[in-house]
Design goal:
Elements lengths: L1 H33 L3 H4 L1 H8 L16 H12 L2 H14 L2 H26 L2 E3 L2 E3 L2 H7 L4 H35 L8 H17 L3 H29 L4 H11 L11 H16 L6 H5 L7 H29 L11 H12 L3 H31 L3 H20 L3 H41 L23 H5 L10
Antiparallel strand pairs: 1-2
Length: 488
């Protein structure tokens, strides 16, 4: 097993060092320049579009999930193990400097997120629940390369609903076990947790995307607020350490006074990998959620999903980093994963806080399982329309959740890194080839905003585009206005 692990780690590191990292950096900077720094310039628009009215069907029902609902589905996938265990791992390996590169990755990646989610909206298709789409769809309809879409879909299915969701389940199991039996000896706990998680997952995923959206809309704000409050309390109790933490993050980002023996290359690589695992910018996962939304212009969901990158990294990941660093841990001997965060919280607030952390970790990880599941479902339906395959997929996801609860996570983390790298490469190549379309949509959106309109896109606004499956006419895009009873 050690040999297999070594091979997986070596091949994954080579992929990230020589292919993924250069692609992420070069394309992110290119998209930033070409879009006029859209990820910063249009931040007010991101908040405005987040609460836009959801277009209705002729019978008065929402066409699909709302812009906010799609945001919470993607946030559910983003905000999970990566924000607690992943940040802890990044700091344990790369020291405080890794946090700087996570922030940098989020800002540069914001432009990539805008491009991919805008394209996901443009090339979405209708289904029984509303809309679905994502990279596989813009590869088929935008690039006319179905083989590329199938390749991406298969990689995503292996990566998110199976590998990543197993890690989420494993983290829930480990946290509950550490809380109930901190001295060990509770071998049955992971099995019990696995059964409970599997049942809860089955109850939600067999209900379709609307049930997933309804659950995530309730869970994501609750878990984020709870975790942020804990973090703010801990930071406030160590307020004198905040300037020291900022200084260490910026100094050690460039290899000055490195801790834990990390080289500059390790610090950068760790920050970028953990940053992409957490905020998924450019990875090709968030467009699957973004495409499910009913909005009046593709750019709106591009902006909303860019806001999701910031929500994940600048809020949730940052609060984890400060929870750890203000408690002044011994990083030279720190364990990777959630234990570093757990120790930092309990050392400040006391042992009781481990119970609260267990609840938050459960909400974080379970919502990620739901988001990951939806990504897989959207891509299963791309590969084959057979309903029997979807039922088998749902059963296998439930089994993977149970297995992840009782398994060792070491090899799965390393394998997931490699799979994530492959997925990123396929998606980044596709959005590089289609980025001109996203920038034309951005110009159309900006022109309508300057004219004082709430932007609406229809196919005839850019007639040179081919492969667009929706966006037929203004009425079908905006839907009928809701009926207002003025006599009430």
């Amino acid at each position: 097993m050690d040999v297999v692990d070594a091979v997986v780690v070596a091949s994954g590191d080579a992929l990230w060092t020589w292919i993924v990292l250069p692609l992420v950096a070069v394309l992110g900077l290119y998209f930033t320049i070409r879009s006029g720094v859209v990820q910063f310039r249009l931040i007010p628009e991101m908040f405005r579009t987040l609460t836009n009215r959801t277009p209705l069907t002729p019978d008065g029902k929402p066409q699909s999930v709302s812009a906010f609902g799609a945001f919470t589905i993607s946030a559910a996938s983003r905000v999970g193990v990566g924000n607690i265990a992943g940040v802890g791992t990044a700091i344990a390996i790369g020291g405080p400097g890794a946090v700087f590169w996570m922030w940098t990755m989020a800002f540069i990646g914001g432009a990539s997120s805008f491009v991919e989610s805008t394209l996901g909206q443009l090339y979405k298709v209708r289904d029984a629940d509303g809309f679905r789409g994502g990279p596989a769809y813009y590869m088929q309809y935008g690039l006319r390369a179905r083989w590329m879409g199938v390749l991406f879909a298969v990689i995503l299915i292996l990566c998110f609903p199976f590998a990543f969701s197993s890690l989420q389940a494993n983290t829930i199991s480990a946290t509950v076990a550490a809380t109930i039996a901190p001295d060990g000896g509770a071998d049955t706990i992971p099995w019990i947790v696995g059964v409970v998680l599997a049942v809860l997952t089955a109850l939600v995923v067999f209900g379709g995307v609307r049930r997933i959206a309804s659950v995530t809309q309730a869970v994501v704000p609750l878990m984020a607020l709870g975790y942020l409050l804990i973090g703010l309390v801990i930071v406030a109790l160590h307020a004198d350490q905040v300037p020291v933490v900022f200084a260490s993050i910026y100094q050690q980002a460039f290899g000055v006074n490195e801790v834990v023996g990390a080289t500059l290359g390790t610090i950068i690589m760790t920050g970028v990998k953990r940053g992409m695992f957490s905020n998924e910018a450019g990875l090709g996962s968030a467009p699957n959620a973004g495409a499910s939304a009913a909005v009046t212009h593709p750019v709106k969901q591009g902006l909303v999903q860019t806001l999701g990158v910031y929500f994940d990294t600048f809020l949730i990941c940052s609060i984890t980093a400060f929870i750890i660093l203000v408690s002044q841990p011994d990083l030279a001997s720190a364990e990777r994963g959630i234990s570093l965060t757990q120790t930092a919280i309990t050392s400040t607030l006391g042992d009781w806080s481990s119970v609260l952390l267990s609840v938050i970790v459960f909400l974080l990880a379970f919502s990620s399982i739901l988001g990951n599941y939806y990504y897989g479902e959207s891509n299963i339906e791309f590969v084959t329309p057979r309903r029997g395959v979807l039922v088998v997929y749902r059963v296998l996801v439930v089994v993977a959740i149970f297995a992840g609860s009782i398994a060792s996570a070491g090899l799965v983390w390393d394998a997931a890194d490699g799979i994530m790298g492959l997925m990123a490469v396929v998606n980044l190549v596709a959005i590089a080839l289609l980025s001109g379309v996203a920038f034309r949509l951005l110009r159309d959106y900006s022109a309508q905003r300057r004219a004082g309109r709430d932007p609406v896109f229809t196919r005839d606004r850019l007639p040179e585009l081919s492969g667009v499956q929706c966006w037929d006419d203004e009425l079908s895009v905006t839907g009928p206005l809701p009926v207002v009873d003025h006599h009430r």
